[in-house]
Amino acid sequence: MIEFTFWDILRNLLLAARWTVLLSLAAFVGGALVGLVVLFFRIAKNKWSRRIASGYIALFQGTPLLMQLFLMFFGLPMLGLRIEPWTAAALGLTFFASAYLAEIWRSGVAALPQGQWDAGASLGLHYLQELRLIILPQAFSITRAPTVGFLVQLIKSTALTSIIGFEELVRASNAINNATFEPFKVYGLVALIFFVMCFPLTQYARTLEQRAAAH
Questions:
Q1: What is the CA radius of gyration of the chain?
Q2: Residue 135 in contact with residue 117, Cβ under 8 Å?
Q3: Contact assessment for residue 44 and residue 50, using Cβ atoms and an 8 Å cutoff
Q4: Distances (CA, A) of 126 to 37, 106, 120, 134, 199
Q5: CA 187 from chain center: how many Å?
Q6: Structurally, how many domains does the chain consist of?
Q7: For residue range 34-92, what is the model confidence (pLDDT) as tens digits?
Q8: pTM here?
Q9: Is the distance from CB of 98 to CB of 31 less than 8 angstroms?
Q10: What's 38's domain CATH number?
Q11: Which residues form the domain of 135?
Q12: H/E/C letters for each residue in 72-139?
């Protein structure tokens, strides 16, 4: 057993938490970009585009994230593509996030009355201009709370990437625990770090919900 002081454990966990934060941000930004494309397909006038987007969303929402990460990390090399744990984790979480964000934002678009589309058409705007100038800004405003709420879920989901070898907070805590044999202290600190990352976002999402309800 290696002797670690409390501060040694905390310092190493905080260093590992940087990768958890970075992975969360990369997956959220990547998921937002891919999700926006999926959203365009999901609300398109062409029925085949809508079906493709619906299938994509159903696939990633209907299968465990862990299986998606396994397919990224173990499946792609079988096709001749070498992939590092960071890349597999980022891609897996990006696709996972894109499916949920696309559906969250689609609900915002669906909540808008038809009159918003008609107003854009009366101004002579074409479809993409209506989306960019009228529909999407309102849809994003409506869905800010669930979007922030999903970010909390995404941060917690990064813990699964430890299984494919990505050196984030949970994997670092396993290594520290194996060296110190102090699971209560180590995993208690991990839970506290996740709480510190997620609680402010949870409160912010709740505030957004209350503001939306007041209007």
A1: 21
A2: yes
A3: yes
A4: 18, 19, 8, 11, 42
A5: 23
A6: 1
A7: 999 999 999 998 999 999 999 999 999 999 999 999 999 999 888 888 899 999 999 99
A8: 0.94
A9: yes
A10: 1.10.3720.10
A11: 6-214
A12: HHHHHHHHCCCCCHHHHHHHHHHHHHHHHHHHHHHHHHHHCCHHHHHHHHHCCCCHHHHHHHHHHHHH
